[in-house]
Amino acid sequence: MKEQIIERLSRYVKINTQSDPNSETTPSTERQWDLLHLLEEELKAMGLATDIDNNGYLFATLEANIETDAPTLGFLAHVDTSPDFNAANVNPQIIDSYDGGIITLGTSGREINPEVFPDIVKVKGHTLMTTDGTSLLGADDKAGVVEIMEALQYLIEHPEIKHGRIRVGFTPDEEIGRGPHKFDVERFDADFAYTMDGSQLGELQFESFNAAEAKITFEGVNVHPGSAKDKMVNALNLANAFHQALPANEVPEHTEGYEGFFHLMEMNGNVEKATAQYIIRDHDSTSFEHRKQQLIAIQKDINSRYYYDPVHLVINDQYRNMAEKITPLQHIIDIPKAVYAELNITPNTAPIRGGTDGSQLSFMGLPTPNLFTGCDNFHGPYEYASIDVMTQAVQVIVGIVQKVVEK
Ligand SMILES: [Zn+2]
């Protein structure tokens, strides 16, 4: 199976599918269709029924091969790659039985040094795919796409493996936060699903942040500084006062685990007008709401000191902690856990300090934990995939498929 995975992954990563946050369309870039259309052809060639909509959500069905009332199971992966780094002319390199040392990335001058990326020693002895140092690899999330395709191929070639109805979905624009944007949960028609979009072996993620963003505008009053007494309101000082009122330790650089934060992303301005942009993150929904209230309280406090309201605040919710929807359905977690145990994979259920497509899909009616893909150092030239771990991810998919009908 390793040879097939290498062949398929090499083929998919060479197709540039970078998404674009500045585009208004879905998919955000035309080039995502190149891979979507190829996958549609390959799914049809396997004998699967496919359905794709105008927004680039490609779904397919592997029908049950037994009489069963088992739930319909879904597997999802995204076709786009990150806009953060060059994604053109991806030239994958294969390393056989990695020796645990420094990996030179082509002639780019870049290297993967275990002193800088200590996690790479976990895949010592594995077959790896890396970049040539000039682009990202895009194994995020083409590794997930490959694993789903290989699992389907395996199930078709092994009809003795009994399974229920399986839906697979390949989706656009995850990297720009719009993955579930136009996902038609009703059309997908699965009882629950797994995104194949994690990183290291064993990851089984079902707790994410609750997330919101805050956009703040500070309106100042500009007067000649020589005659400004009791007249000038400096918007930069307002912005500074606002920021100082937030707890200094509740920032990304001082938090971990279940600790939430306020993150100042951007601050701009002059005496007349200033703007600030924050993201708010917390696993706990009560404490998340409290953080939003804290911002409103600071706004009110500053405004109360002036004869007009200089601080304008807009808070937008982004996604929520999927645990709220997933943990009441314990079997969705127990099934992959049991499969990991059979394959001798230690589960890592640490809460993620971020979100996945599942964070939104779970609230849209499709509970969706996230599983490992075997790739690491996403979104840049140091990205790599372990073909060995990808093989285990395929086994996990096949294992889950079997486990669901055993229940
Ligand atoms: Zn991804």
Notes on the protein architecture:
The longest helix is centred in the last third of the chain and has 20 residues, at 387-406. Helix content is 29%, strand content 21%. The chain starts with a helix and ends with a helix. It is globular and about 85 Å long. Helix 1 crosses helix 3 (139-157). It is built from ten helices and 17 strands. The strands form four sheets. A seven-stranded mixed β-sheet has the order 1-2-8-3-9-15-10, covered by helices on one side. A four-stranded antiparallel β-sheet has the order 4-7-17-16. Strands 12-13-11-14 form a four-stranded antiparallel β-sheet. It is an alpha+beta fold and 407 residues long. Strand 5 (103-105) and strand 6 (110-112) form a beta hairpin. The protein has helices at 2-13, 32-45, 139-157, 185-188, 235-244, 285-303, 323-326, 331-342, 357-361, 387-406; strands spanning 49-52, 58-62, 73-78, 93-95, 103-105, 110-112, 128-130, 166-171, 192-196, 204-205, 210-219, 261-269, 273-282, 311-319, 370-371, 375-376, 384-386. The structure holds zinc ion (ZN).
The level of helicity is 25-40%
Q: What is the count of DSSP helices, taking H or I runs of 4+ residues?
A: 10
Regions with pLDDT < 50 over 5+ consecutive residues?
Answer: none
Bound molecules: zinc ion
The share of residues in extended strands comes to 15-25%
Number of strands: 17
Q: End-to-end distance, in Å?
A: 28 Å
Shape field = globular
Largest sheet: 7 strands, mixed
SSE sequence, one letter per element: HHEEEEEEEHEHEEEHEEHEHHHEEEH
Structural class: alpha+beta
- Give the radius of gyration: 24 Å
Strand order of the largest sheet: 1-2-8-3-9-15-10
